[in-house]
Amino acid sequence: MNDAHHERDSTATKHDVGGVVVRGSAAGFAQEILAGPHRMAADEPRSAGGTDTGPSPYDLLLAALGSCTSMTVGMYARRKGWPLKDVTVNLRHSKVYASDCAECETKEGMLDRIERDIHFAGPLTTEQRSKLLEIANKCPVHRTLTSEIEIKTRAV
């Protein structure tokens, strides 16, 4: 372990370990999210036993994908000098039977489906719109969600 990494670890408190910190009472679903200087909330809707003080975890996941998509296509259009004026991304998450998914490798049980509709505002050509759709599938969060993900969990 290098000295800079060890020094950072030794000065971190149990609640200040970098990255994103999420904390909440075990009595309910409401959570406080700390991402650097930003504070957000997460919760479940009242219909699921929450207090609806923030978006659900799946809404936050969709927000991450949607914001990354919009940022990525916007950056690409700026680099190309294309007349993209605005990007709107609508996302939905659902569980579907694997047997109903023709393009999926998994054929048994349930799987997660995210539907993403992207509206590009501006006088773009058909080719430009097509290329922006292709670029949307290359945003970093999309690539993460469609790759093999390893999550290491430990109690500290």
Mean pLDDT: 88
Number of strands: 5
Helical amount: 25-40%
Our count of helices gives 4
Element string (H = helix, E = strand)? HEEEHEEHH
Overall structural class, as computed from helix and strand content, comes to: alpha+beta
Mind telling me the C-alpha Rg?
20 Å
Strand order of the largest sheet: 1-2-3
Shape: globular
Give unreliable regions as ranges.
1-15
Report the end-to-end length measured between terminal Cα atoms. 19 Å
Give a structural overview.
Helices cover 32% and strands 24% of the residues. It has 156 residues and is α+β, with helices and mostly antiparallel strands. The strands form 2 sheets. A 3-stranded antiparallel beta sheet has the order 1-2-3, with no helix packed on it. Strands 4-5 form a two-stranded antiparallel sheet. Helix 2 (57-80) packs across helix 3 (126-136). It is globular. The two termini are 19 Å apart. The model is unreliable at 1-15 (pLDDT under 50).
